[in-house]
Specification:
single chain, about 400 residues, alpha+beta, Thymidylate Synthase, Chain A, four-stranded antiparallel beta sheet, 13 helices, about 35% helix
Length: about 400
């Protein structure tokens, strides 16, 4: 039974019925509610919405990119995943604008104009530039005929490694925080009542690997958590994390549950035999659940991908530690619909859900590409175009 699409449609309807009109950083405007929880039992199918077509390979590619610890969009672009294109291009334009503030432009008609603020700089201005910019207080002369359109920018990321290394970097976003959280460590020695600090050095914390180790050695721990919200790194990120952390919970499976997984139907006289058989064939002994927290939720466009992404992450972790995926829970904060998405939202609310598909994963968290993730029996309604507001 597909309760997932029904919950999602209810969330859309609640925002329409009860949402507050709010402004946002993009200037688009939203309807928004605060606080919503989505529950899905993974045994009912893979959580990929069916009331519109969801780009499964795009979602899986982004998750593999997170798990690689990568923060440069080149891997994404090379694998036809364009989720982060707009953020990278916006960062590129902003830095170009920052370079121009305080400059004097000599236009093609010979008229000079000083750039005093970022909003004075756009592609039209740069195109009209004859070629020279005199920087006040500096003898440097820049030639400005190379500001790229987004399409040109992405193509250059794909074809020019040096350009990609410089402009494809998004800062310390998800992959960095998950796999290489940096912290300043100190060697210490005691001197009477006081601690003397010495040998300052940077330490790296691989939160994902630590999580896997803890699941194998202490699966009942209440500290099975990964966070992407690192306040010291926020200023250096093109976009602060929207989904900022997740927690894992496991429980022991009953013998009856293990027998069912092994497709055994024993009577009590076969109890010991069936238990030994389950152990011999490495039948999982635990169920594993995941709950993620998200501060900002673009419900029409982003949340379908987030639900599927954390469902896939749960499956990858379960495969890595030989457990059975059980509950997927999303704690959603600011749930909003952009005003330019309303028409598509109303269409999706009226659609009847299909049955959920199934997914198989290979190599746990070490999946090297989407080829290690197999989607089967996915039936959905047609794609709905929702504008992305960067």
């Amino acid at each position: 039974m597909n309760r997932l699409d029904e919950q999602y449609q209810s969330l859309l309807q609640d925002i329409i019925d009860f949402g507050a009109d709010k402004q946002d950083r993009t200037g688009t405007g939203t309807k928004s509610i605060f606080g919503y929880m989505i529950h899905h039992n993974m045994r009912n199918g893979f959580p990929l919405l069916t009331t519109k077509k969801v780009a499964f390979k795009t979602m899986a590619t982004e998750l593999v990119w997170f798990l690689r610890g990568d923060t440069n969009i080149k891997y994404l672009v090379d694998n036809n995943c364009h989720i982060w294109d707009g953020d990278a291009y916006k960062n590129y334009l902003k830095k170009h604008k920052d370079d121009l503030i305080g400059c004097t432009i000599v236009l093609s008609n010979g008229v000079s104009a000083e750039i005093k603020a970022q909003h004075n700089v756009n592609r039209n201005v740069l195109i009209t530039t004859k070629g020279r910019i005199n920087i006040e207080g500096d003898d440097t002369i820049k030639i400005l005929n190379d500001t790229l359109t987004q399409e040109e920018f992405i193509n250059k990321i794909k074809t020019d490694d040096e350009f990609a290394n410089k402009w494809g970097e998004l800062g310390p976003v998800y992959g960095k925080q998950w796999r290489d959280w940096s912290t300043m460590g100190r060697g210490q020695e005691m001197n009477g009542m006081f601690t003397i600090e010495k040998n300052m050095k940077m330490n790296s914390i691989d939160q994902i690997q630590n999580l896997i180790n803890d699941l194998k050695t202490n699966p009942d721990s209440r500290r099975l958590m990964v966070t992407a919200w690192n306040p010291s790194d926020l200023p250096n990120q093109v976009l602060p994390p929207c989904h900022y952390g997740f927690q894992i919970y496991t429980r022991e499976l009953s013998m009856e549950e293990r027998w069912k997984i092994a497709n055994l139907t024993p009577n009590m006289s076969e109890f010991d035999y069936c238990n030994r058989l389950c152990d011999e064939y490495n039948v999982p002994k635990r169920a594993i659940s995941l709950m993620w927290n998200q501060r900002s939720c673009d419900v029409p466009l982003g949340i379908p991908m987030n639900i599927a992404s954390y469902g896939l992450l749960l499956m990858m972790i379960a495969d890595e530690v030989n457990m059975i995926p059980e509950e997927l829970i999303g704690n959603l904060g600011d749930c909003h619909i952009y005003l330019n998405q309303m028409e598509g939202v109303k269409e999706q609310i009226g659609r009847e859900p299909f049955e959920l598909p199934t997914v198989h994963v290979r190599d746990g968290i070490h999946c090297s590409s989407v080829n290690d993730v197999i989607l089967e029996n996915y039936q959905s309604h047609s794609k709905i175009y929702f504008p992305l507001s960067n």
